Every structure is written in structure tokens, then in C-alpha cells.
Amino acid sequence: MSNTKVKLDEASNSSLTDQAYRQLEELIVTVQLKPGSVLSELALAAQLGIGRTPIREALHRLAREGLVVILPRRGILVSDINVQSQLRLIEVRRKIEEVMVAASAKRADSAERDRFRQIAKGMLEAGAAGDDMAFIRYDDQFNHLVAESCRNEYAAKAIGLMAGLSRRFWFVNNIQNADVELVARRHADVATHIADGDIDSAVAASDRLMDYILEVTRRSIDS
Asked: By three-state DSSP, how is residue 38 classified?
């Protein structure tokens, strides 16, 4: 087999793995795959129309991010939601996001700044409509754009281990404990300040967002 053919096969498999990861991550974050559910590679492959190898690789990636638990000889489970773990996660996430939004405000190129403005607009529209699913998708786009535009691969890898867990927790708890329009506005503020290149305002907006997320998390303990 030629080197070109090998590279094409690897690229194709990587693309399918990314596709499987994105679909599975959304199913878990939006609790269509519920915490504690037992997952089958074969069933997921049939459901998504993707081969078992990309599904397996996507599940291993999700395991690294804490969204699934792989138990040798026992199976794969969707991880439980743990409020105390979420509180500890927020402590770390706040500091990493301060670094990332400051770097994004400084380093984003013009196309990325335009995209931040588009995401901010979409978030505000989703919040005004109370559209949880639209917001959670814009939030995913926002997270990926910050990770890319900050130009810091170490911060991006660190936040990647937290983003899915954070988004799932918000999706599960927002109905009783959060205001989708307010959280969308807080996210949009961060995106807008990054687009404007205003480092101090971007960091301050990020802290206000994290303050609200912490408030919602604590409310979930009370409820």
C-alpha cells in the first residue's frame, strides 16, 4: 500500500472519529444518553451510521474528558453527574478561562473576531427564544473558537477536559436553577469583548459568567 493511500485512510478515519465524537458528545451533554446508561459500540455504530473503530476511538476520547467510564470486561457507562466535582471543576476552569479569553482578545485574527460576533448574536437570539438546544450548540462553537484563537495549546487541552462536563451540568440544571437568557447574555458579553480586542473587559466578563455558573451550581445543591 502506498504512503499516499495510508495517509488518506488515516485522514478518513480521523474525520469519522471526529464526527462520531461530536455526535456522541452532544447526545451525552443533552442527556439523550442518560447518566448511568450502558453503551454498546455496535448499537452506537448502527444509530450513527459510523463504523465501530471510529466509535471506539470517540468513546476513548470521551472517557478522557470524564463523560463516559470504560470498565474493562464490564462495558462502557455514561458518567454520573456529581455536584461536588462540578464545584471543584469551576475553581480550575475560572483561572484557565481567564488566561484563554485574554489571549483570544489579544491574538484572534479578523475572521475569528467576526465569528465571535456571529456567535454572540446567535447566543442572544437563542436566549431570547429560550432555545436550550440552540444555545448549547453555540456554546460549543464558542468554546472551540476560544481554544483555537487563544493560540495556547496547553490551556486548550486543559479546558477540553472540562467543557463537556460543564455543558452537560448546565443543560441538566438550567430548567430549575438557571435563566437561559441571562447565561446567553453573559456568554455573548465575553464573545463581544474578545471580538473587540478588549482584554480587561473580556476577563471581567468571563469572571461574571463563572460567578453565575457557580451560583447555579450551588442552587442545584439546595434543590
From this structure: strand
What is the pLDDT at residue 21? 96
- Find out whether 164 and 25 touch, Cβ atoms under 8 Å: yes
Predicted model pTM: 0.83
Q: Which of 56, 78, 100 is the last residue of a domain?
A: 78
> Which pLDDT score is estimated for 175?
62
pLDDT score recorded for residue 44: 96
Number of domains within the chain = 2
What's the CA dihedral at 66, 67, 72, 75 to 10 degrees? Answer: 170
Q: 96 and 157 in one domain?
A: yes
Q: Are residues 114 and 154 in the same domain?
A: yes
Where the chain has pLDDT below 70, the residues are 1-14, 175-177, 223
**Pair (90, 55) in one structural domain:** no
3-state SS of the chain: helix, strand, coil percent to 5? 80, 5, 15
DSSP 8-state assignment for residue 76:
E
CA distance linking residue 156 with residue 48, whole number of Å:
28
Residue with cell 455558573: 213
What CATH number does the domain containing 158 carry? 1.20.120.530
State the residue range of the domain holding 33. 3-78
**In the prediction, which pLDDT does 173 show?**
80
pLDDT at 11: 42
